[in-house]
Specification:
This protein has 604 residues and is α+β, with helices and mostly antiparallel strands. The protein contains ten helices and 37 strands. The strands form eight sheets. A nine-stranded mixed beta sheet has the order 1-37-36-35-34-32-33-31-30, sandwiched between helices. A four-stranded antiparallel beta sheet has the order 2-3-4-5, with no helix packed on it. A four-stranded antiparallel beta sheet has the order 6-7-8-9, with no helix packed on it. The N terminus is likely disordered.
Length: 604
């Protein structure tokens, strides 16, 4: 066993390579803006080397760092009146903490809600008066509770359940609260309940009832008009995510029937007259405007690639965060130009992705391939497996894959079963045979990569973070003869121990995926746990883990690493003082250096 110290060979001086510049270049998120003070915005940036919240007064141009913590801060909400910044204060990335708030113009941080103990967050909605809030919280002891706070008074509990739930939205006039819940026990498919601030129920919508299909709902937002009882809702009734309008007072449901392939979401324009539609299809996305009564959306022009977020401004313009695999992210506006252009280093471009479709055991699998310009195979190839599992890789900029390409590797990213964006059946397919189904799809794409001449079969790297780290450890154990190196970041390694140590909301998700707890369905947990196959691992394995991680806790990773060490298997482990990943740029660079170095040493 080797304990990595963050100083691999070749990490000395000299000019900064492109891959490091991509990590160091200042980035910004899509700015959130105050509903009743639209010149006041809140965004996240790594301008100081750590991801923190920034207040931006658009009228004066002043930007102010609102938070400053050693391990960074990204969870923040701007009150609708623009007077307060709420931000979630945890301990070194453990995601367990309390909401604090500070004046928009600067000042001391104070507890946002007196009387609520530390917890995992379960949603937040702030009223237009700035002093009313709906706060969701989750703990192992209480499950999910939701509280209403008015004018600095004592919080009033309006909801409690053992299963996972969360605050969806607060209506424009503060009279209605939308809650997403999984009281039926299916954490992958929420139902909706609308209540008054005293907790009495106004309306319910549950697509999990009355049929054999497992259909989910999500809150997209109340209409931004006083007295308007329309709630924008996402549904899966036609096998994909689509928006509809639900009038919670009358019960009327308005189906928008948008003729767009793939998943569709939406948000209101500020005056409530139209919807800004976000459309995702085959790893790319675009924007549309839908006006009620028109019957058809009109395109909002954006470049080819991926729109990671978008918001409609009061003047009718749309601001959006865009990137492609080759082009770094930028916040643009349909009114022309770049909205936020942080000073400093500019991230170098990378290479575009190529789309590959491979026939797999569950249907056609979509993979995205990048390789160094001008190269031909066979190349050392990294299969970079995304986390989630309900997520997907897209044609968007990512510094990690670009670093591998810079070092001469091909990178293959597989949108395996479980990924979003390819319909409900594809996303839900991994139940009960968790991990094993995803690896079947990775294997099918791996066979294509080798047979096509792209990938060198003796230099195949399986890599990923979070769920991707889990699939990496499971893959090198269940497919020991095909992978030359395994690189697992913040993984699930011992699934039974992970279940008992993880945050409550993830326990609920695991019960849904496996059909029960480890005590109720032990064979399923055993079949899907990397620890079961640890003695079969042949490839050198590198593991990185945050010691405060509530999602993939450290104890279960130590159990796996100890088993590797007991049999003298080649491996290295790197532990760092953060949670489920790091918000510190230097730490991220260190981890990529360690992975690059580990792969180079064991593929030579």
């Amino acid at each position: 066993m080797t304990e990595s110290n963050g100083a691999p060979r070749g990490a000395g001086g000299g000019s900064m390579p492109d891959w490091e510049r991509r990590f160091r270049a200042p980035r910004v998120s899509l700015p959130d803006w105050a509903e009743d003070a639209p010149d006041r915005s809140l965004f996240v940036s790594n301008a100081t080397g750590t991801y923190e919240l920034y207040a931006w007064d658009r009228a004066t141009g002043e930007q102010r760092r609102a938070t400053d913590r050693p391990n960074g801060t990204t969870d923040g909400v701007l009150s609708p009146d623009g007077e307060w910044i709420w931000w979630f204060s945890d301990k070194d990335g453990d995601e367990f903490g309390v909401w604090l708030r500070q004046p928009f113009g600067g000042g001391d941080d104070v507890p946002a809600v007196d009387g609520l103990e530390a917890s995992y967050p379960a949603g937040l909605a702030i009223g237009r008066d700035g002093s009313t809030a709906v706060v969701g919280r989750s703990t192992d002891e209480d499950g999910t509770t939701i509280h209403v706070v008015r004018g600095g008074g004592a919080p009033q509990e309006i909801y409690r359940h053992r299963e996972s739930a969360g605050v969806g939205d607060l209506s424009h006039d503060g009279t209605l609260i939308a809650i997403e819940h999984t009281e039926h026990g299916d954490a992958m498919h929420s139902a909706l309940r609308v209540v008054r601030p005293d907790g009495t129920t106004v309306a319910e919508l549950d697509d999990t009832k009355g049929g054999t299909q497992e259909l989910g709902l999500e809150v997209l937002g109340f209409a931004p008009v006083d007295g308007d009882t329309r709630l924008l809702v996402g549904h899966q009734r036609r096998g994909r995510w689509e928006p509809m309008v639900w009038d919670v007072a009358s019960g009327e449901e308005t189906d928008l029937s948008l003729d767009l392939p793939g998943d569709v979401s939406a948000e209101w324009y500020p005056d409530g007259s139209a919807l800004l539609v976000a459309h995702s299809f085959e790893a790319r996305s675009d924007l549309w405007r839908y006006e009620f009564g028109s019957g058809a959306p009109t395109r909002v022009e954006t470049p080819p690639g991926t729109v990671s977020g978008a918001t409609a401004r009061p003047d009718g313009s749309v601001e959006y965060l865009w990137s492609s695999a080759a082009e770094p992210s930028v916040v643009r506006s349909t009114s022309g130009g770049v909205v936020l252009d942080p000073p400093g280093l500019k991230a170098p471009v990378s290479v575009p992705v190529e789309d590959v479709w491979v026939e797999g055991p569950g249907g056609r699998i979509h993979a995205l391939v990048q390789k160094p310009a001008g190269t031909t195979g066979p190349l050392p190839t990294v299969f970079e497996v995304h986390g989630g599992p309900t997520w997907h890789d897209s044609d968007s900029f990512a510094a990690g894959p670009a670093a591998w390409v810079d070092h001469g590797y091909a990178v293959v990213r597989v949108n395996y079963r479980g990924s979003t964006g390819y319909g409900r059946e594809w996303t839900d397919a991994l139940k009960h045979r968790v991990g094993l189904i995803e690896l079947e799809d990775v294997s099918a794409v791996r066979e294509w990569a080798v047979s096509s001449g792209l990938a060198d079969p003796d230099r195949l790297v399986l890599a990923g973070g979070s769920w991707g780290g889990y699939l990496t450890l499971l893959g090198v154990g269940t497919q020991p003869d095909v992978w030359a190196v395994g690189l697992a970041a913040v993984p699930v390694a011992d699934y039974v121990t992970a279940y008992h140590d993880e945050m409550e909301a993830l326990k609920a998700l695991d019960r849904t995926l496996f059909g029960g707890t480890p005590e109720e369905v032990p064979d399923r947990f055993t079949a899907s746990s990397p620890l079961t196959y640890v003695d079969e691992v042949k490839a050198p394995v590198y593991v990185s883990a945050g010691v405060n991680d509530p999602r993939c806790p450290i104890r279960q990773i130590d159990n796996y690493v100890d088993r590797l060490a007991a049999r003298g298997a080649t491996h290295e482990v790197y532990r760092y003082d953060a949670g489920h990943g790091s918000l510190v740029v230097e730490e991220r660079i260190k981890q990529v250096r360690l992975e690059l170095d580990f792969a180079a040493r064991h593929l030579s």
